[in-house]
Each structure stands twice: as structure tokens, then as C-alpha cells.
Amino acid sequence: MSAQTATDFLDASIRSATPLLLAALGETVAERSGVINVGLEGAIIAGCLAGLVGAAEFGPMAGLAIAGAAGLGIAIIFAVVAIALAADQIITGTAITMLGLGLTSTLYRVLYGDGGAALQTPTLSPIGIPLLRDIPLIGSALFDQPVPTYLAALLVPAVWWGMYRTQFGLALRATGENPAAARASGISPKNMQSFGILFGGLCGGLAGGTLVLAQVGTFAEGMSAGRGFVAIAIVALGRWHPVGAALAALIFGMASALQFLFQALDLKLPYQLFLALPYALTLAALALASGRYRAPKSLGVRLNVAD
Amino acid sequence: MTSRTVLRALLEPLLAGMLALLVLAVLLGASGYPVGEALTALWQGAFGSWSVIASGTLVRATPLLFAGLAVAVAFRAGILNIGAEGQLLIGAAAATAMAVNLPPGLGAAGLLLALGAGVLCGGAWAAIAAVLRLRFGVLEVISTIMLNVIALNITGLLVRGPLQEPTRTFPQSALIDQALRLPRVIPGTRLHAGVVLAVVTALVIGWFLRATAPGFRLRMTGANPHAAASTGRIDVARVTLLAFISSGAIAGLGGAVEVTGVTYALYENLSPGYGYTAIAVALLARLNPARAIGSAVIFGALEAGASAMQREAQVPAGMVGVVEACVILVLVASEWIGARAAAGGRLIRGGTPRSGPTSAPAT
Predict the structure, then answer these.
(1) Domain limits at A264?
(2) Could you tell me if residue A135 is inside a domain?
(3) Comparing B206 with B363, which gets the higher pLDDT?
């Protein structure tokens, strides 16, 4: 393997990992508050389309912000049904994902016509950090990236600080472990979980925006391609910790980047193998990591009316 | 059944159907399509004539019923199987592989072998997720969704590789031999014997859950695994494993019926998301197998009508996904408003805490 191939592989790994990390960080916060949001996929695909439309109108940076807002909007629906109306989180989440996928495919056709003409959007260009980007091998992968990659990298310590070093983070984690006890000490579990969901939706939307604005440059139906579910798996692999999520996201970025590596090495393998690989790896990793981590105690459990 | 529950069983699907139409009308209006024309096309495509009902609605309802039953059995056992889609695809692939490789002249026995292959492989595919949950504590929601994607890629690989048709041009399998196809039940329509099989399956599962000891153990496990385990008579892990595999087997049968009854070949995009719509089918039926027949017909009509709507009014078919999602959301939210399930597991009634994703159920 030449140095250039290795550099390209690392670069592709970071690029694939970025949206996964953004989505997984949001989901980490949601799950620490006790909510599993299977509707994350819906927030990501909403972010994809909103990012495209927003960037076409106002430019790529505004597009990214609008993508985050779209994810937030999807999350509000989830919060109303799953928290305010106390419905089952998993079924609600599944419906939210269906809603996101259906709504974006419909809107895309309504906005851009039946042929779904491939609308290209200006993408976020990489911002190089002087000196650092010239480090051999890892320089361009780590220090010559578009904004969302830096954003994701900064969010890791920010989420850690928020969850482990603030009163609010303690209240959020307490809710995820035992909502009744949290309530007894004056915390509103509904507010904590709503915050977790909304933050998760915002991050999911940003992940979708990243996909369109920093990578693909256009929208395709269902282009989120299960990333929301991979992100949920990453949260478990990362043991519900932001730093763990970063490591797990990086491993999955590398798994996805393998296809570029294999192409470069000129190995003729069916592309379906590469498409299925990250998912098979997720399953294997989840099985291997079993027993060595613990989920928040009340994850996925509905709040009682009193909470 | 009391007359009130019968009334509710009839009223709820009707209300859900009307709700779906309302949502659709709003969506159509908001995105600038001619509402009247589109809804007329929908109605004509779903119920316009006897032949449309048979060839469209009921043919579409058949895989939805199989997949809906798969979801209902799993949910009743407390298993969140979102994997009916993958299990159905694997069942279809296995049935096709069997059918195109059988020696000629087997007739009905060959058809049974093909359907059996679908049942076995659908069950085996679900068994992966079951073992991952019981042995390794992997949340089945995540594993079944991953397995759906893997199943879709396996199907794609098969129709371009080992199962590709002889000319090696199109991404599909060879046609299944005439003798191995499900017979048509109404001549001149596309309605095949699979619809009868689906209804019989629904009634048998309904009887099994209601009137047999294993069915009772399954319901107990779903209602409260801790209570079920503490009776000392119910092996919760075993019941979970068997229920999960049965769920996959039912979905696999649905896939096998689809290739031997409708498409006669394996395609990559064989299922337009039957496994996901199945969740709406099962929830609307309140996880009751007999009532799933009615809700499968409603969603079958919606999908058949949507195809007509796309043909005649150029309305994107993705809109149906939005309608289905809204129906599910209203159904789960309505629990809170007070419509308690007459039958159904804790998923529908709520209240009982679910064990976390990493803690395997007590054995």
C-alpha cells in the first residue's frame, strides 16, 4: 500500500465517520436521559433534504443550519408522541423514520419534479489548518476537512463536559437511571427527556446536512441508508459515553472506507459486500462488546403519568 | 367477544381508513395535486371493480397479512421484531433457489418444498437476531434493522450471481416453473391460493394464541417476563427464541408465497417495504391475528390505490409511507387518550417496564 493510498483511506474514514459521530453524540445524550430514538434515521434524512434546499437558497453554511433545524422539527414530533403522550418509544420511532423517509421523497419530487433531476448543490469546502495539515499521512485527514468534521470533533468534549461536569448533565443522567428518584429530587423527567430528544434531533439533522453538503453534493431518496440505526449501535458500542462514541464512529468510518481501499488495491469484489459490511460488523461488534457495558437503567421505559 | 368489542373491531379499521384518507387529502392539497382526481384514482385502483379488488387490493394484502402476523406474534411475545422485511426477502430468496433448482415433474410436492424452504430460512434469519438478544443481549430493534439491510444486499448479490437468469442480462432470477406456482383461485384475475393460505394462517395463529398452552406461555412472556419466569413453569428464554423464530418463519412464508404466487421470480426490489407496513397492519389489528385480516386489506387497498394514483395523477408513491406513519402515530398516541386494547401485549397496554437492551431476560 502506497502512502497516498493510506492517506486517502484515512481521509475517507474521517469523512464517513463524521455524520455517524454527529448523530451518535446526539443519540448518546438522548439515551442517557432514558430515551431510545429509533426515529433518528428520520431526522437525518430530513436534514439531507433541508440541507440541499437551504444551501440552494442561502449557501452551504446556512444550509447546514437549516438541516439541523429540520432534524429538530422531526424530533419535536417524536417528543410530543413519545413523551407528552407517553407512547411506546420504539414503535413511535419506527413511525417517525417512515414519516421522514416518505415526506422527503414526496417533497423532493414536488420541489424538483418527477424525474428527481439530480440537483447539485455547492458543498462546504475543506478548511485547512496551517502547518498541521502538512503532517505526513494523517495531516489532511485530520486538519484539512470541512466545517462539520471540526464541529463533530469539538462536540465530543462539549458533550462530555455538559453531561459530567454540570448540574444539568447530572439531572439528565439521573433521569435515565431512575426517573422516579429524579423526580423526587425536584427534576422534571419529561423536560430532561424532551431536551435529550431535541438535542438528538438537532445533531441528526446536522448529520444529514453533512452528508449532502460535505460529501455527496445532492439528494437521493433514502440516502441516509440506515446511518441512524448504525449511530444507535455506535452509542451502545461507545458505552453511552461521548469519547466511546467517537472511537466507535471512527471504526465504522474505516469499515465504510474499506471499499475505497479495495478499489485502490484493484480487488474485484461485488459491491453489495461492501454495502452490507458495516452492518454485519455492527452486529458482530455489538455481540462481542456484550456484557462489558451497561445501558442507562431506564432506557426505553415509558414514564409514568406522575413523572 | 362481546358486542362492544366486535363493534370496536369493525369501527377502528374504518376510522383508521378515514384518517388515512384525510391525511392523504391534506398532503395532496398542500403539495398542489388535484385532490379529487387523485382520490378518485385511489378508490378506482383499490375498489373500482371486482377484478381490481381481486388482482390489486387482495394480492397486495396477502404479503402484508403474512408480515403483519409475523409482527403481531413477535410483539405479543414482547419481541420488537422490526425485521419482517429481511425475513420476507430471505424467505423469497430461499423459495426461489429451491424452485429453480428442483428436478422437473415434482408438481405440488415441489411447490411445498419451495414454500418450506421459505419458512425455514425466514425462521433461521430471525434466529440470528434471537440468539444475539438471548446470548449477547443485543437489542433486537437494532439487530433486525441491520439484518434487513444485509438481507437486501444478499438478494441483490443472488440475482446478479448464483441465481441470475440464464441469459445473465437482467438482475433477476430465472422464472419459476409453471408447475411450481401457486394456482389462481379466481380465473382471469391475479388472485392466487396464497391469499387462502394467509387467511388460514391468521386463523390458526389466532387459535394458537387464544386456546393452547404454548400460546398462553407466549402471551404471558410478552405481558410480563419477570412474572412469567417467577411462576417457575415458563422458560422465558425458550419461549422468546421459539416465538422469534416463528415470527421469522411466518414472514419467510410470506416471501415464498410472493415469488410463487405473484412475481414468479426473485427481484431485488421484490418488497416495497411490506415488512415496515406490517407494523401498521399489526398495530391497527391490536396485535390480534384474526383482526389482522381486515387491517391487511385496508393497507393492501391503500397501496394498490397508491399505485393507480401514481399512474393516473403522477402522485409520488412515497406519500403512502407518510400516511402509514401518521396512522401508526395516531394509533400509539390514542392509547394515551384512553382507547385501551381489548387484546394485546404490554407494548399496546404499556405500563410494564421493559428490560434494558443489554440485560437478557431472566431465565
Answers:
(1) 3-112+146-288
(2) no
(3) B206
Does A63 reside within a domain?
yes
Can you tell me the ipTM of this complex? 0.87
The listed range with the strongest mean pLDDT (B177-181, B314-318, B339-343) is B177-181
CATH of the domain at A248: 1.10.3470
Supply B331's cell numbers: 394509533
The amino acid occupying position A79 is A
Write out the three cell numbers for B359: 440485560
* Chain B residues closer than 8 Å to A114 by CB: 314, 316
Distance CA A65, CA A182 (A): 33
Decide if A106 and B336 are in contact by the 8 Å CB cutoff.
Answer: no
10-residue averages of pLDDT along chain A (307 residues): 77 92 97 93 96 90 96 96 87 91 89 66 77 70 83 96 96 93 92 97 97 89 88 89 94 84 72 81 82 73 65
On chain B, the residues whose CB falls within 8 A of the CB of A98 are 276, 321-322, 324-325, 328
Write out chain B residues lying below 8 Å of A81, CB-based: 329, 332-333
- Considering only residues B77 and B284, tell me which one the structure prediction assigns the higher pLDDT: B77
* B329 to A275: CB separation less than 8 angstroms, yes or no: no
pLDDT, tens digit, 9 for 90 and up, residues B171-220: 999 999 999 999 999 888 899 999 999 999 999 999 999 999 999 999 99
Burial class (CB in 10 A: 0-12, 13-18, 19+), B233: exposed
Report if pTM > 0.90: no
How many separate domains does chain A show? 1
User: The cell 408447475 sits on which residue?
Assistant: B179
Whole-number Å distance between alpha carbons of A85 and A299:
17
* Cell numbers found for residue B277: 407496513
The answer to whether A276 contacts chain B (CB < 8 Å) is yes
Residue B42's H or E segment, with its range, is helix B35-47
User: Quick check: is A28 in a domain?
Assistant: yes
Subunit contact A276:B149, Cβ cutoff 8 A: yes
Q: Which residue has the higher pLDDT, B93 or B361?
A: B93
- Between CA B267 and CA A280 the distance in angstroms is 22
Cβ proximity of B47 and B53 under 8 Å: yes
**Where are the alpha helices (H) located in B48-160, listed in sequence order?**
50-52, 59-76, 84-101, 108-136, 140-160
What is the structure's pLDDT at B297? Answer: 93
Q: Counting Cβ atoms within 10 Å, is residue B88 exposed (0-12), middle (13-18) or buried (19+)?
A: buried
Query: Which chain A residue lies closest to B323 (C-alpha atoms)?
Result: A99
**For residue B128, what is the nearest residue in chain A, using CA coordinates?**
A283
Task: Judge: A86–B143 Cβ closer than 8 Å, yes or no.
Answer: no
Closest residue to A297, CB basis, from B149, B276, B356? B356
Instruction: For chain B, give the longest Cα–Cα distance.
Output: 62
Which chain A residue shows the shortest CA-CA distance from B268? A272
For residue A292, the model assigns a pLDDT of: 58
Is B146 in contact with A282 (Cβ distance < 8 A)? yes
Give the mean pLDDT of chain B.
87
Residue A192 lies in a domain: yes
Fold adopted by B50-296 = ABC transporter involved in vitamin B12 uptake, BtuC (1.10.3470)
pLDDT, tens digit, 9 for 90 and up, residues B267-308: 988 998 899 889 889 988 889 999 999 999 989 998 899 888
Q: How many residues does chain A have?
A: 307
